[in-house]
DNA sequence: CCCTCACACCATAGC
DNA sequence: GGTGTGAGGG
């Protein structure tokens, strides 16, 4: 319990009220007041809706905050307001965010509003997971853990599951551990324990052993004194349900609850919140209404916002009108709630974590869950130009099932650029062109810090990194290949973990034989078996084995050394400063020497990373605190001291804004991602569209969308078509870049036709949308081979006809699909061949459909990108071709034509 | 029994 | 382009 005392004094003073506030916050707030009306500085400059959201401190409040409407400002000001008016102590506010970044930013901004000193005392501001850890450390024993439990990352989890699958005698190839890890995640996201999962789900894995595996997994975690990410929410929920007294403590404790990004909460997070937010009273709720909602909420929301400006006393839905929203949660009872000061902020249009179990429904159902809720809409956008906003609004309007906010801005500057749409030949040209654009902005005195490239999938990042390295352009990758995921960091952390928690077998297994000590699979198995048989951790088992004569001299000596090392380090844990200890561990284990002796190119970088790791430990109190940070944060914090372009995924861009934003890779299959369509169907597509919306609304002034005609996926060049989202942008707000000719002389990339007509007229066209739907529906292939399938070939053929009709010409479908080649000098031959291929179009499609390949080794062929070459090998429809100029490449047979 | 190298197979997004 | 697995050498 030590370490948690900071808020203890208030624990038993549930009724501490403004008058009793001893902290001097109120006084400080008074000092901060300056206006004649007594309006504190921190409230100045808020618009009426924002101010209402800040000042409606009592009762449930839902703030529907569109992109760029000042959501974070409202949240932070609200907290500042609660503190400054002495409504609660910092320790009595529970504020939950999704990302560490958001939590950090909130802390900082509250600090600015009311003074640093007042925020340090906000121990319960953090991510769901970090707060979960805190709760769980306090009550670990109620979940069968010790308070020093370790948190496993995805990698550990998969390895553990693999062991269990093998232990069950199942084939781990047929039943991949990764798949089961995903299933586990889904279950835990729904708050389901092994006995609560659906029978069908339980049976669907490992010859019906799903449930059994789940149980075995949880048992194993317990013996390892570990938990996974899901447990950080799942355990507290179970504790709250099983121990009402514990829950009550927190009910007394938290006077105000605030939740950021409420649209991203999953069922488990929702349960967790409800348990904390609901103070059950005696009278049971009458009646039962199924959870259908939306219209009611929307209507109410509109009514609210229309009259909300009038007064700060919100017209609230009377409690009596309460409709008992959701099906009762287990163990929670169906009770009427007393008013809860919970404030959730979110935007249904930015819900992009469905794949992680997020339920948009949570936000749509808010007023049913919390009767009498005040719903406030923030629709005034302060971030983007009218063009950007117009493009984003028009795009998102293609979604059904939304509240339907209308963002607006007063901004009307004729100087503002429209949203630029660009085409490039392939991903390399895309990277080159974006690099050039960035440099051009730089010459106009734009900071690199104000620019970002937002990609759909992280593999897209490499092209930009490569390009920027050659240009010498500073960049930073956010949330990319993460620091902690690096081999050397994971190894080092494994050493530390074993020292901190001797029961962490997974970490132990990782490093027993690092550096190589001659302990192979056989020895490790023996340690494993001994540990299991004696029910002790592997480290102890190793020590035991080292003293027995069951091993050959060599491994025995090695084990003895390992065991002695860890014993020594564990002893030093309490007495030695942790950074020093960490260095000692890496030295004495021979780990640093291992890399010093390594002649490979990466070795110096790895040593550098290890130093960085040690450096970053300094900020933490202890080794344990550091390990927890690593487990939860997962991303190395990079200083923003340097001017650099940011590269990140669209997902990690949520909540951020940049002056200039580049959105590359708007192609069917990549964005919307084929897997999202395959797995999620229509709702999958809508989530992708919301992701596109998030991307568009990150930009303040300049926005550039790119698509390419050729992209390399899994080492194969694939032809691609522009994303349907490109078509969904409103013509009035976009500007088609018409000079793609700086590289290779492609001339007008749109083949002379206007962009819209080239694409079949987009919105008003008779075949646009449905044509794309066909592609999605008929195509059974996975992303990697989508474009080799008969369905795509057909779609392509249809497309050609359609476009031809539109253009009134009959030329190669490749040409107008991609839109290149008209004036191409460098690829002049390509044009002819492409045309030639078109004439054979039907034949090619047929051959792809019927037979693996119509080519023979030795055939001379032409490829649009690589030119002429000879086929060196054939593997199904994959050809290995020795190109005259480009060298050996593997390509799909659909993309070459006989010469 | 362990280590190294070549090969197969694979990659949406992240707390 | 990265990682996990298998065969062969030491």
Automatic annotation (TrEMBL):
Domain UvrD-like helicase C-terminal: residue ranges: 386-655
Enzyme class: isomerase
Top-level lineage group: Bacteria
Keyword match ATP-binding: yes
Disordered: annotated span: 284-338
Entry similarity comment: Belongs to the helicase family. UvrD subfamily.
Descriptive protein name: DNA 3'-5' helicase
């Amino acid at each position: 319990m030590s370490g948690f005392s900071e808020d203890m004094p208030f624990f038993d003073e549930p009724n501490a009220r403004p008058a009793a506030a001893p902290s001097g916050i109120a006084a400080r707030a008074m000092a901060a007041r300056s206006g004649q009306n007594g309006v504190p500085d921190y409230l100045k400059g808020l618009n009426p809706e924002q101010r209402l959201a800040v000042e409606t401190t009592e009762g449930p409040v839902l703030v529907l905050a569109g992109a760029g409407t000042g959501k974070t400002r409202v949240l932070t000001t609200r907290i500042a307001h609660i503190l400054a008016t002495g409504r609660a102590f910092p320790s009595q506010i529970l504020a939950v965010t999704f990302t560490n970044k958001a939590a950090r930013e909130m802390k900082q901004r509250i600090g600015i509003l009311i003074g640093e000193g007042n925020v340090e005392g906000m121990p319960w501001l953090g991510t769901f997971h970090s707060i979960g850890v805190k709760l769980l450390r306090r009550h670990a024993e109620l979940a069968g853990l010790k308070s020093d439990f370790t948190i496993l990352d995805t990698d550990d989890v998969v390895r553990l599951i693999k062991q269990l699958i093998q232990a069950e005698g199942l084939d781990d190839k047929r039943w991949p551990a990764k798949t089961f890890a995903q299933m586990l995640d889904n279950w835990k996201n729904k708050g389901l324990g092994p006995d609560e999962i659906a029978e069908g789900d339980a049976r669907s894995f490992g010859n019906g052993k799903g449930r059994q595996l789940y149980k075995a997994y949880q048992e194993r975690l317990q013996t390892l004194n570990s938990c996974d990410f899901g447990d950080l929410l799942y355990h507290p929920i179970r504790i709250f349900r099983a121990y009402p007294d514990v829950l009550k403590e927190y009910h007394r404790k938290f006077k105000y609850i605030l939740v950021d990004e409420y649209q991203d909460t999953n069922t488990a997070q929702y349960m967790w919140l409800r348990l904390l937010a609901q103070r059950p009273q005696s009278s049971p709720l009458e009646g039962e209404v199924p959870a259908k909602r939306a219209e009611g909420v929307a209507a109410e929301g509109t009514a609210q916002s229309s009259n909300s400006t009038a007064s700060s006393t919100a017209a609230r839905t009377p409690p009596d009108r309460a409709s008992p929203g959701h099906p009762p949660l287990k163990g929670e009872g169906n009770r009427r709630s007393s008013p809860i000061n919970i404030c959730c902020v979110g935007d249904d249009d930015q819900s992009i974590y469905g794949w992680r179990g997020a339920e948009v429904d949570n936000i749509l159902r808010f007023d049913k869950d919390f009767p009498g809720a005040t719903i406030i809409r923030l629709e005034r956008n302060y971030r983007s130009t009218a063009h950007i906003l117009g493009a984003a609004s028009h795009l998102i309007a293609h979604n059904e099932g939304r509240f339907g906010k209308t963002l607006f801005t007063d901004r009307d500057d004729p100087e503002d650029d429209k949203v630029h749409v660009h085409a490039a030949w392939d991903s390399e040209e895309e990277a080159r062109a974006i690099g050039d654009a960035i440099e051009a902005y730089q010459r106009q005195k734009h900071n690199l810090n104000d620019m970002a490239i937002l990609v759909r999938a992280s593999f897209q990042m490499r092209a930009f990194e490569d390009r920027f390295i050659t240009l010498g352009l500073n960049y930073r990758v956010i949330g990319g290949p993460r620091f902690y995921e690096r081999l050397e960091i994971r190894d080092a952390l494994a050493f530390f973990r074993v020292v901190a928690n001797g029961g962490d077998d997974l970490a132990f297994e990782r490093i027993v034989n690092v550096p190589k000590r001659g302990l192979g699979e056989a020895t490790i198995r023996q340690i494993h078996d001994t540990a299991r048989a004696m029910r002790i951790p592997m480290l102890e088992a190793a020590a035991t084995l080292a003293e027995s004569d069951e091993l050959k001299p060599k491994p025995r000596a090695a084990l003895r050394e390992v065991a002695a090392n860890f014993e020594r380090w564990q002893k030093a844990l309490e007495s030695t400063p942790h950074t020093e200890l960490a260095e000692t561990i890496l030295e004495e284990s021979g780990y640093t020497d291992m890399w010093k002796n390594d002649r490979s190119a990466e070795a110096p970088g790895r040593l550098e990373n290890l130093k960085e790791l040690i450096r970053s430990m300094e900020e933490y109190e202890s080794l344990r605190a550091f390990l927890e940070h690593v487990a939860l944060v997962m991303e190395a914090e990079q200083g923003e001291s340097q001017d650099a372009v940011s590269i990140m995924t669209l997902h990690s861009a949520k909540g951020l804004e940049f002056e200039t934003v580049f959105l590359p890779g708007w192609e069917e299959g990549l964005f919307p991602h084929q897997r999202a369509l395959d797995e999620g169907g229509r709702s999958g597509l809508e989530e992708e569209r919301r992701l596109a919306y998030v991307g568009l609304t990150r930009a303040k002034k300049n926005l550039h969308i790119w698509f390419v005609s050729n992209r390399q996926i899994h080492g194969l060049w694939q032809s691609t078509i522009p994303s349907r989202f490109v078509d969904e942008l409103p013509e009035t707000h976009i500007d088609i870049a018409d000079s793609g000719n700086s590289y290779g002389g492609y001339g007008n990339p749109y083949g002379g036709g206007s962009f819209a007509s080239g694409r079949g007229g987009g919105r008003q066209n008779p075949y646009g949308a449905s044509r794309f739907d066909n592609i999605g529906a008929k195509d059974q292939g996975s992303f990697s081979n989508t474009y080799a399938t008969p369905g795509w070939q057909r779609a392509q053929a249809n497309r050609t006809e359609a476009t031809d009709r539109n253009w009134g010409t009959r030329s190669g479908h490749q040409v107008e699909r991609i839109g290149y080649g008209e004036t191409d000098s460098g690829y002049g031959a390509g044009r002819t061949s492409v045309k030639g291929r078109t004439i054979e179009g039907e034949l090619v499609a047929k051959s792809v459909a019927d037979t693996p390949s119509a080519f023979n080794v030795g055939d001379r062929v032409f490829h649009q990108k690589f030119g002429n070459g000879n086929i060196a090998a054939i593997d199904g429809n994959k050809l290995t071709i020795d190109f005259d100029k480009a060298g050996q490449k593997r390509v799909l047979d659909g993309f070459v034509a006989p010469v």
